[in-house]
């Protein structure tokens, strides 16, 4: 492993630990030449997950885009970055386990909504309003009523 600071190719591992439920390894390293420390991640390379959009276009799945959408819905809400990271990781894991190589974008949106409804109801409504493309206030109110009914049945 080359040092990102001085380019030396002699580094030593100070600490290793499993992350993401054992599917990756985080290593803390130190350069033998400049003594600076840095972190590396080692993860197995799997087949890319392809998202099939509503219009039929295909693009590679991006956990970053998933997190950005969740973060937008959770803006100014009492939801931590760790909760968003965990949700994105769990959704990606379930998508990879439940489909071959292609997943409809609808499955991703529904998974986000299923998680947000339990995490933060305001974030859920925000996400739903964009995901379900609310055209007017009536549709917004309908979603609110459905949410209240679900909450009352629990």
Features:
154 residues, alpha+beta, 2 domains, 3-stranded antiparallel β-sheet, 3-stranded mixed β-sheet, 5 helices, 6 strands, elongated
Your description of this structure?
This protein has 154 residues and is of the alpha+beta class. Strands 1-2-3 form a 3-stranded antiparallel beta sheet, with no helix packed on it. The chain has helices at 63-73, 81-98, 105-119, 121-131, 137-153, and strands at residues 11-19, 24-31, 37-43, 50-52, 58-60, 102-104. It has 2 domains: 11-43; 50-153. The termini are far apart.
Major pleated sheet: 3 strands, antiparallel
The portion of residues forming beta strands comes to 15-25%
Number of separate domains: 2
Shape: elongated
Zinc finger (unnamed): 3-34
Pfam family, one: ATP-cone
Function: Negatively regulates transcription of bacterial ribonucleotide reductase nrd genes and operons by binding to NrdR-boxes.
Cofactor: Zn(2+)
Helices, strands, pairings?
Layout: E1 11-19, E2 24-31, E3 37-43, E4 50-52, E5 58-60, H1 63-73, H2 81-98, E6 102-104, H3 105-119, H4 121-131, H5 137-153
Parallel strand pairs: 4-6
Antiparallel strand pairs: 1-2, 2-3, 4-5
